[in-house]
Amino acid sequence: MFTDTHNHTSHFSSDARMTAKELIDACKKLQMNGVAVTEHYEGDYPHDIGEVQIFDIPEYFEAFKSWREYADGFPVYCGIELGYQKHLCGFYDDMIAKYPFDEVILSNHLYAGKDPYFFRECYEEDMLTVYRKYIEEMAEMAEKCNNYDIVGHYDYINRYAPYEQPQIKYAQCPEAFDRFFSAIISKDKCLEINTRSVDKMRKKGLSDSLPDKEILTRYYEMGGRNISLGSDSHGSETLCIHFKEVAEYLKSFGFTENSYYVGRKRFGEPL
Length: 271
What we know:
The chain has helices spanning 20-29, 57-71, 89-97, 127-144, 174-186, 195-203, 213-221, 243-251; strands at 3-4, 34-41, 76-83, 103-107, 150-151, 190-194, 227-230, 257-262, 265-270. The mean pLDDT is 97. It is of the alpha/beta class.
């Protein structure tokens, strides 16, 4: 039984399909320990997709009151997923300080200023260059921003990659990964293991779909202990997807806890 720390609803995330009530009902059915709702907040999103990528935060907190009432004691945590751009760090830090979030995820959905989900042209460069530049941006993000708890899906860049073996590996850009891990660890932040990324690799038919062994080994060697399981669900059918398998895998590297946040304080539950 786990807490799933990364999920979206159709109320405030334009790409989500499930309502808050559907999310809560599914969580109870799965007998989960708890769930965080982490709606997308993409400041200055570069693509015109017909949907605004930010939301009214006070309105969100008002809606969240009714969701907690509906949950009837089941732990539902109030979160947000911030979409990184360099010029937004100060704005995000100040904005988050004004609101009583339980959890803040900081993610990078862009490569060279564009989202690979919409613009696959970013993969026209060779794989090593693309992955190195992306992890360097992740490192910069972790260094420059401060008011966050979890770094979301470090492997977002490989989700839509057309390469024959698209999974991101430590050996492809070790210096960038070390810089990235150093920033997370020095700030006592949490590295997300995003099981939607695992599922994407499985749907590509890859047998090697779990996070790279060297990535986890190096993070642990450098002192990283904070790990968070997030399914990144946009529909209730993927809640906690692959969690049991991934938890056993993480334990083989020495990790012992799944981190979740309440009132911006980290708590741990056994893997």
